[in-house]
């Protein structure tokens, strides 16, 4: 990693307290960083805290009953210490996000043009007409056919894939330095999925935007990411450049994921279940979170391992990493 | 959309027919012979027979209906047996009064109900939310007559700020007109405000938890825009429908409230008519209010279609 990271998350922890007093530590000890023009993939099973992590970066978690600690450094500023007001100035401008649910993420009562224009005039000192021109341009850039006509459409007239394109157009309208894409293709069917990923890749080339791509599809990671952070039960358990991760996974959980890598003839297969269940996050185990499912377990695993370097550019949260030595 | 509207309009015809038959026949199912009532002290069977003939009461019921509905279409709702004036004239006299009261009550209900509903949704689970819900429930469950009497005691009797009863037309003296109607409008409005508050609250909670509100926040929009533009626009549709229906109910006259404040509107007219077996008046008033209610219902539906891009296409 030559260039200084644009986003660097350090030891992020998020705890929700429910109205019944139950506390869920959804995210705990999450660290990763991403540099300008690069794509970081965050992978992990459903419920491991991927969305919570990305929403904390955006400052979009519910205010009531949520405790966040750690540091989220974006362009050198710690977002957890910024005022709501300056966060609002960042959101949609230098920092943008697209979501898992294209069907419901657009407001059904306003035209897509209106919704993109709104994002532009919020952050740029330009009139509505100019903003409308820019919005049509953006629709064209995300390859929406007949953009000038679609501008006046309500979201219900568009398919899921088209809506996700609109979301991307909206997110990129102010040329953000960082785009967080939370499972942007999960809700879409395969061919559309490939198109959207291709689009994001092309847009990254054009704009140099850094991307955090959240997914539970290792195939997607292999295709578009430069680096990967693997999450398990609220923690980052392994970080590595993408080729190295696939060549030598260093955490037993990652090894398990590789074993269940989706086959090319069935690209939509989710991460197949590794034996055993994810721990209950309202009562996480004291030691390694993966211990209950780990074939490499040793007595030491009853204390929690740190995310520690296991190579020049990579780290793993496992007492037994690097694992190659074991195989040897 | 045109097809949808056409369908709603087509439904209107049988509905109105059914309602008119109902109104007409209820009249004839009620005990008491209108001819006898009209005859008053007169007990001479010849006279009574003549009254029957004169009002068509000797004809078979379906014929009577056709005669009646035919007259209705020409604007002739018959004549009040008691007051000896055309029913339509009575209605034209009383309608503006009830209308004024209904509009004022609706303003009170919408302003209080929507503001309170939005506030309690935005401040969910806070002290605000709690207080608003308690007050709202109290508003729904307080009987109108009790609140009316309390208001009279406070503002008319003790403080002497407002007249206790009576009515002045706004065309005569706007200020006094408002003074005479503000209390009954408040009584009627608060009762509806509670219901509107609850609907607004739940619709707003749903909207605020939606993905598109999250998108709006992700654009960096202020909470004010998020709440009043993005969430409100979607939450308001059911509230408007409800408001239109409540308005229809208000138009049929607020019997007790009008009685307490001696407001000479539809409520008072219909009560007097029922007690005096003034059939033509009862029929006329019920027909007019039922029709208005049905039309408002239709307007609410059309409004719903217009406000909803998915149906508008
Ligand atoms: N507002 C909240 N209050 C309480 N718990 C929450 C809240 N948001 C998320 N959680 C919990 O935090 C955990 C992590 O959720 P998250 O949505 O981040 O998972 P995810 O990795 O994005 O999964 P998926 O792949 O299904 O999207 C889950 O157990 C979830 O129930
Ligand atoms: S620390 Fe122990 S239990 Fe945890 S992943 Fe490594 S070997 Fe398995
Ligand atoms: Mg998620």
Automatic annotation (TrEMBL), chain A:
This is ABC transporter ATP-binding protein. Pfam families: ABC_tran, oligo_HPY. The lineage of its organism: Bacteria, Pseudomonadati, Pseudomonadota, Alphaproteobacteria, Hyphomicrobiales. It is a peripheral membrane protein. Its main location: membrane. It is found in: Cell inner membrane. CDD domains: ABC_NikE_OppD_transporters (cd03257). Residues 7-258 form the ABC transporter domain.
TrEMBL record, chain B:
It is a multi-pass membrane protein. Residues 95-300 form the ABC transmembrane type-1 domain. Keywords: Cell membrane, Membrane, Transmembrane, Transmembrane helix, Transport. Gene3D superfamilies: MetI-like. Its main location: membrane. The keyword Iron does not apply. It is found in: Cell membrane. One of its GO terms (cellular component) is plasma membrane. InterPro entries: BPD_transp_1_N, MetI-like, MetI-like_sf. The chain crosses the membrane at residues 12-30, 99-122, 134-157, 177-197, 239-261, 281-307. PROSITE patterns: ABC_TM1 (PS50928). Pfam families: BPD_transp_1, BPD_transp_1_N. One of its GO terms (molecular function) is dipeptide transmembrane transporter activity. Belongs to the binding-protein-dependent transport system permease family. This is ABC transporter permease. It comes from Salinarimonas ramus.
């Amino acid at each position: 990693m030559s260039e200084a990271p644009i986003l660097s998350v350090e030891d992020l922890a998020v705890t929700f307290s429910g109205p019944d007093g139950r506390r869920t530590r959804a995210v705990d000890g999450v660290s990763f960083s991403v540099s300008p023009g690069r794509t970081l993939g965050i992978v992990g099973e459903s419920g491991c805290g991927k969305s919570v992590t990305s929403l904390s970066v955006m400052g979009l978690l519910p205010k009531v009953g949520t405790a966040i600690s750690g540091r989220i450094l974006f362009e050198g500023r710690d977002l957890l210490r910024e005022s709501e007001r300056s966060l609002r100035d960042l959101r949609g401008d230098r920092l943008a996000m697209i979501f898992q649910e294209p069907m419901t993420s657009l407001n059904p009562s306003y035209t897509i043009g209106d919704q993109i224009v709104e994002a532009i005039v919020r952050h740029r000192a330009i009139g509505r007409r100019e903003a409308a021109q820019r919005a049509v341009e953006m629709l064209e850039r995300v390859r929406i056919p007949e953009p000038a006509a679609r501008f006046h459409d309500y979201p219900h007239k568009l398919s899921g894939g088209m809506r996700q394109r609109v979301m991307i157009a909206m997110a990129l309208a102010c040329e953000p330095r960082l785009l967080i894409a939370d499972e942007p293709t999960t809700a879409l069917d395969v061919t559309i999925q490939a198109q959207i990923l291709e689009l994001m890749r092309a847009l990254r080339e054009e704009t140099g935007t850094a991307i955090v791509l959240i997914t539970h599809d290792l195939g997607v990671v292999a295709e578009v990411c430069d680096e990967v952070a693997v999450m398990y039960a609220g923690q980052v358990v392994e970080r590595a450049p993408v080729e190295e991760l696939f060549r030598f996974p260093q955490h037993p959980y990652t090894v398990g994921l590789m074993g269940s890598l989706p086959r090319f003839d069935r690209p939509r297969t989710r991460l197949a279940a590794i034996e055993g269940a994810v721990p209950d996050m309202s009562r996480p185990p004291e030691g390694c979170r993966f211990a209950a499912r780990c074939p490499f377990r040793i007595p030491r695993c009853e204390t929690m391992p740190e995310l520690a370097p296991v190579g020049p550019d990579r780290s793993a949260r496992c007492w037994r990493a690097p694992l190659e030595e074991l195989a040897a | 959309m045109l097809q949808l509207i056409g369908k709603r309009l087509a439904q209107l015809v049988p509905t109105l027919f059914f309602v008119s038959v109902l109104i007409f026949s209820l009249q004839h199912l009620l005990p008491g012979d209108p001819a006898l009532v009209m005859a008053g002290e007169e007990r001479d069977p010849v006279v009574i027979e003549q009254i029957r003939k004169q009002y068509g009461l000797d004809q078979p019921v379906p014929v009577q209906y056709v005669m009646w509905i035919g007259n209705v279409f020409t604007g002739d709702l018959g004549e009040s047996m008691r007051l000896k004036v055309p029913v339509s004239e009575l209605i034209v006299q009383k309608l503006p009064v009830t209308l004024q009261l209904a509009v004022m009550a609706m303003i009170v209900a919408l302003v209080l109900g929507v503001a309170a509903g939005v506030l309690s949704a935005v401040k969910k689970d806070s002290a605000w939310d709690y207080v608003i819900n308690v007050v709202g429930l109290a508003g729904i469950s307080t009987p109108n007559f009790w609140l009316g009497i309390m208001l009279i005691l406070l503002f008319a009797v003790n403080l002497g700020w407002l007249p206790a009863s009576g009515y002045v037309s706004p065309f005569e003296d706007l200020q006094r007109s408002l003074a005479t109607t503000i209390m009954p409008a408040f009584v009627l409005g608060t009762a509806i405000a509670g219901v509107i508050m609850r609907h607004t609250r739940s619709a707003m909670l749903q909207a605020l938890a939606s993905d598109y509100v999250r998108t709006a926040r992700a654009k960096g929009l202020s909470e004010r825009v998020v709440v009043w533009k993005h969430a409100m626009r979607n939450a308001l549709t059911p509230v408007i429908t409800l408001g239109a229906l409540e308005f229809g109910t208000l138009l049929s006259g607020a019997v007790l409230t009008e009685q307490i404040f001696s407001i000479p509107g539809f409520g008072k007219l219909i009560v007097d008519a029922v007690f005096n077996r003034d059939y033509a008046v009862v029929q006329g008033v019920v027909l007019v209010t039922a029709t208005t209610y049905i039309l408002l219902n239709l307007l609410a539906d059309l409004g719903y279609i217009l406000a909803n891009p998915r149906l508008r296409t």
